[in-house]
Backbone:
């Protein structure tokens, strides 16, 4: 007859004064202990009878050990995560993009968020950052938004990896409300004439060692051909076909920028006169070179040509009791070219082609403005482009040539 399994209840008193019980019994040829915790004596006896019955039936199994607790995941700080994000993505960016992102991170985002664990960056934290940047007044709204866009991009990756429940920097409400800046250009014949006359006077007054700087011709090409500043500085005599009234732009950022611009009468006479005055007009020679024949810098055009011409033009306009010029950049004169093309009746597709645009937005905005101009203003601009206004003022040296060119428009 098989021997009946036996066991016992073991008690001990803990430091908290409570009585703890466990079971001791034999099963499968070994002694076992099963902790019951702080249970009553009756509950312990009931548990012992059940265990011994299971042992007799051969179905008792020792309790599985409790799984070891997993170490709690450490939430990375924004600095640590941003550094890893940078390593993973930097190969995708151009050098200029890396420099821009590094400025946004090191100069602005890290000083605020570096030590914060990712899950503690809240919408309130992002809004406080935005408010602090606005109060400091060192960044424009557009620049603040650029830092917020980068912050949102980094936190979006953290959200995808389930480190945070939501991206607190995402959404238009996190951005600074900005207004589209006014893009200046000249849309009146008086203003264009004043600027070009001022440049011509500066040419006449220039010292002997500064006569190589063709101020009037430089601003004329910007206003009457719509070149970007880099295109102007790259221009060589091989790009200018005066016989066929065509200017070629062969190096540009986009395919649309590789284009041909019609040389209209006002510009034709200016370029013809410039070429006649130059000693070096070989095909590879720069049209607007330095004194040594090298490539001129953009800062020279802005600071030594455009700025003095604007200053002198404004003095002339003030003396004539006329409104001053708006704030101008070389790109303002490129927009002026679009305005002039509309004034002579060119449709938006032609304007886009000659300016090298793929996006119709700028062309159409200027088109809308041009359509609001009165008839007299449009006629004055047309006369300026065709050279008729120059002839009437006695400045057109080749009147018949200008008229022949005007008939081709």
Residues:
């Amino acid at each position: 007859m098989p021997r009946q399994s036996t066991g016992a209840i073991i008690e001990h008193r803990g430091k908290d004064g409570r009585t703890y019980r466990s079971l001791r019994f034999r099963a499968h040829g070994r002694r076992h202990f099963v902790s019951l915790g702080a249970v009553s004596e009756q509950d312990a006896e009931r548990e012992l009878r059940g265990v011994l019955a299971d042992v007799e039936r051969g179905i008792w199994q020792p309790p599985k050990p409790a799984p070891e607790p997993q170490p709690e995941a450490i939430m990375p700080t924004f600095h640590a995560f941003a550094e890893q994000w940078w390593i993973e993505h930097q190969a995708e960016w151009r050098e200029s993009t890396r420099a821009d992102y590094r400025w946004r991170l090191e100069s602005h985002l890290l000083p605020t968020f570096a030590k914060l664990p990712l899950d503690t960056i809240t919408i309130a934290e992002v809004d406080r950052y935005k408010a602090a940047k606005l109060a400091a007044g060192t960044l424009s709204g557009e620049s603040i938004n650029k830092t917020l866009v980068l912050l949102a991009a980094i936190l979006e990756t953290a959200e995808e990896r389930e480190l945070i429940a939501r991206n607190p920097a995402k959404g238009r409400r996190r951005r600074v409300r900005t207004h589209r800046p006014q893009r200046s250009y000249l849309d009146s014949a008086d203003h264009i004439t004043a600027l070009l006359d001022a440049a011509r006077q500066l040419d006449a007054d220039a010292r002997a060692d500064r006569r190589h700087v063709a101020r009037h011709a430089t601003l004329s090409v910007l206003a009457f051909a719509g070149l970007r500043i880099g295109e102007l500085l790259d221009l060589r005599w091989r790009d200018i076909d005066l016989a066929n009234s065509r200017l070629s732009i062969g190096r540009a950022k986009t395919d649309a920028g590789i284009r041909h611009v019609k040389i209209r009468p006002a510009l034709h006479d200016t370029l013809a006169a410039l070429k006649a005055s130059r000693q070096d007009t070989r095909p590879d020679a720069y049209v607007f070179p330095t004194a040594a024949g090298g490539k001129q810098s953009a800062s020279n055009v802005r600071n030594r040509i455009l700025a003095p011409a604007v200053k002198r033009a404004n003095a002339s306009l003030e003396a004539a009791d006329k409104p001053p010029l708006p704030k101008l950049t070389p790109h303002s004169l490129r927009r002026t070219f679009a305005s002039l093309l509309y004034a002579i009746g060119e449709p938006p597709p032609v304007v886009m082609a000659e300016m090298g645009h793929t996006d119709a937005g700028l062309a159409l905005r200027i088109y809308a403005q041009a359509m609001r101009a009165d008839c007299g203003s449009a006629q004055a601009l047309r006369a300026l482009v065709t050279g008729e206004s120059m002839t009437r003022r006695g400045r057109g040296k080749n009147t018949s040539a200008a008229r022949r060119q005007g008939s081709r428009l």
Summary: The longest strand covers residues 19-27. The radius of gyration is 40 Å.
